[in-house]
Amino acid sequence: MNGERSTLKNSENLTSRIRVEVYIPIRYEPAYDYSLTWMIDEFTRARGGCTVNENVGGYYLSRIGTPVADRINVVYSDLSFDWNDHRQRAEVFVYGVKLRRFLLENLSEEEILISAYPVSHVVAKSMA
Fold first, then answer.
1. Quick check: 79 and 94 in contact, CB under 8 A?
2. Residue 3: which region, alpha, beta or left (left: phi > 0; alpha: psi -120 to 50)?
3. For residue 61, what are the contacts with CB-CB under 8 A and spacing of at least 6?
4. CA 28/CA 108 separation, integer angstroms
5. Burial class of 52 by CB neighbour count within 10 A (0 to 12, 13 to 18, 19+)
6. 76 CA to centre of own chain
7. What is the DSSP pairing of strand 113-124 with strand 51-61?
8. Where are the beta strands (DSSP E) in the chain?
9. Can you give the pTM of this predicted structure?
10. Backbone phi, psi, residue 36, to 5°
């Protein structure tokens, strides 16, 4: 809010979360479909839900230094953890490492990008 006064009313508050995003390349091999389905199921069942941005344009620099255009699916979930709590943040980082390890073991990729960062949800309380 850049130093401005909060415009949130008394019936609203902010809930801290940590967003975890997983970037899964689109390939026409069963392992990629399986991994995407697994990731969606993992976030939905274990973490309460997720969002998928499909067929997003992405670019990366290969190991030999060549720019490569790629199509990806971005799967993300806002986990009920607080970024400012060092233990909770570390737990999310360990979770991200496990996700990355699973994907690298199952996909033919040089690298898998997983990001984690703080977000806040605005929650409006019912006036009823």
1. no
2. left
3. 67, 68
4. 12
5. middle
6. 3
7. unpaired
8. 12-25, 51-61, 67-79, 113-124
9. 0.82
10. -65, -45
Q: What is the CATH number of domain 13-124?
A: 3.30.70.120
Q: Sheet of 67-79: strands edge to edge?
A: 51-61, 67-79, 12-25, 113-124
List pLDDT tens digits, range 74-123.
999 999 999 999 999 999 999 999 999 999 999 999 889 999 999 988 87
Domains of the chain, residue spans: 13-124
Q: What is the DSSP string of 14-39?
A: EEEEEEEEEEEE--SSHHHHHHHHHH
Q: CA dist 114 to 9, 35, 93, Å?
A: 35, 14, 10
Are 22 and 38 a contacting pair, CB within 8 Å?
no
